[in-house]
Amino acid sequence: MGEGINGDGRLAAAPYGHWVLLSPAGGSPRPSARYKHAAEVIQDKLYVVGGSRNGRSLSDVQVFDFRTFTWLALNPTRDSNRLNHETNATGGSFPALAGHSLVKWKNNLVVVAGNTRSTSSSNKVSVWLIDVETNSWSAVDTYGKVPTARGGQSVSLFGCRLLMFGGEDNKRRLLNDLHILDLETMMWEEVKTAKGGPAPRYDHSAAVYADQYLLIFGGSSHSTCFNDLYLLDLQTMEWSQPDTQGAHIAPRSGHAGTMIDENWYIVGGGDNASGSTDTIVMDASKFVWSVVTSVSARDPLACEGLTLCSTTVDGDKFLISFGGYNGKYSNEIFVLKLKARNLVQPRLLQSPAAAAAAASVTAAYAVITATDEKTRDIVATDDFDIKKARPASSSKKFVAEIDAVNGEKDKLESRLAEVRDENSKLKDKVDLANLSYSELAKELESVQNQLAAEGSRCQKLESQIAAARKRLESAGSLENELEVLRRQISQVGQTMATTQRQKSGGVWNWVAGSAEASDDE
């Protein structure tokens, strides 16, 4: 890491390609050290919102002015004209947040999701606006299918819409869902994408490229960290996992990233064992990773939960990092002055076969161009005039060379035609494969629906079988009771018969006794 820049210095004096500590002007108070905060740059000012320190979420809004090199606590007031329907326990103070996301839109900082002490009974994602011009904040009512509350998600701006992916909910369940918030209508929409997307994760990074693609990198589950890269086509809503080239990138979570033109810069993060020491960049037009610079293992930048922003000063582009945790909380600002990178024609979503065909065509064109230039040089030579030259061995040699060059050109043109034909065939095969894949996907979906229906039927049958078993058990019990009743009835019958016989004998005895008494008289 290079030498620091103090309050009397200028960003323009920073060296290229190395992180430099930026020290505030003398006497300027520093904000509390923190991590899992959010930050954005607006008009030469770095806004830092919330964060966590020692297990406690923070509610402050801090601003660093790059013109004066001073910190200032913003203390925004609540906008009474934009009160939402939920009761906010924080009253007029901005809520304490950690693990949230921050996006600049118009004159506002849009704060989305995160872990908060707010006693919201809905358990849904909250959205706040901070107006940097009026120094006020408001909690916003949102509509539609509002997502589950979460932290560690990614939020990216796409026109006037926010793309929110993944995170971890309040029950520590990992998510890989995608939601879109229209900032004009404040309407949420859950997006159903084709299968093959990222596994559930949190503390990853995301970026929008070329107003058409959403990139997802890294993050972690509860047991492992990732270094995978996923791409979502925002027109077809289909996921893909492009092959990357260049430097090997270690798994990481809790890192921060920012997109500048076609270059996606990422700093910090870790793998639960150590912090990531390298600052990396991916050329999103070619999916090529490279390392910008590295720091030591105990450097404040080799940490988790930091933020990364960018700004332009005097024509130079800078990366700006703040905060983080690597065993110690940080409240330092580091800047990195970027070198100019070559612009290339994007080649997103190019298959290996198409890439090989394109390379063959490019090589053929290069050879043909070189051959044409060589031919033109021969013909345009001042010392050679084919009409005025006398028959000589040298002129015959040149004519033979021209004929050879033309022959070579014909062969290359023939080869180019073959390459084009091959490319066309490959395209037909790709189209056929896509069609076959689409049909297979439909068939798979049909089979899955059938399996789901059969599963539902099985559950109903199991319920009916269980009910029948209960009835059978009940029937067995009834048989036992009936047998007992039969025995009791039999016993009662026997008792009544015995009693009847006894009663009959007694009457005749009485009659006989009465007769004897009459005779005696």
Features:
5-stranded mixed sheet, alpha+beta, 521 residues, 31 strands, 30% helix, ACBP4-6_C, 6-stranded mixed sheet
What secondary-structure arrangement, pairings included, does this model have?
Blueprint lengths: L1 E4 L13 E4 L15 E5 L2 E9 L2 E10 L4 E4 L3 E2 L18 E2 L2 E5 L2 E5 L2 E2 L10 E5 L4 E5 L2 E2 L5 E2 L2 E5 L2 E9 L4 E9 L4 E5 L13 E5 L3 E5 L11 E5 L4 E3 L4 E2 L9 E5 L2 E5 L10 E6 L4 E7 L12 E7 L2 E7 L10 E5 L14 H28 L13 H128 L1
Parallel strand pairs: 1-2, 7-13, 14-19, 24-28
Antiparallel strand pairs: 2-31, 3-4, 4-5, 5-6, 8-11, 9-10, 10-12, 12-13, 15-17, 16-17, 17-18, 18-19, 20-21, 21-22, 22-23, 25-26, 26-27, 27-28, 29-30, 30-31
Helix pairs in contact: 1-2
Describe this structure in words.
There is one protein chain. β27 and β28 form a beta hairpin. The chain has 2 helices and 31 strands. The strands form 7 sheets. Strands 14, 15, 16, 17, 18 and 19 form a 6-stranded mixed beta sheet that branches. A 5-stranded mixed beta sheet has the order 1-2-31-30-29, with no helix packed on it. The chain has a 5-stranded mixed beta sheet with strand order 7-13-12-10-9, with no helix packed on it. It is α+β, with helices and mostly antiparallel strands and 521 residues long. It is flat, with a radius of gyration of 41 Å. Keywords: Coiled coil, Kelch repeat, Repeat. Pfam families: ACBP4_C, Kelch_1, Kelch_KLHDC2_KLHL20_DRC7. InterPro entries: ACBP4-6_C, Kelch-typ_b-propeller, Kelch_1. This is Acyl-CoA-binding domain-containing protein.
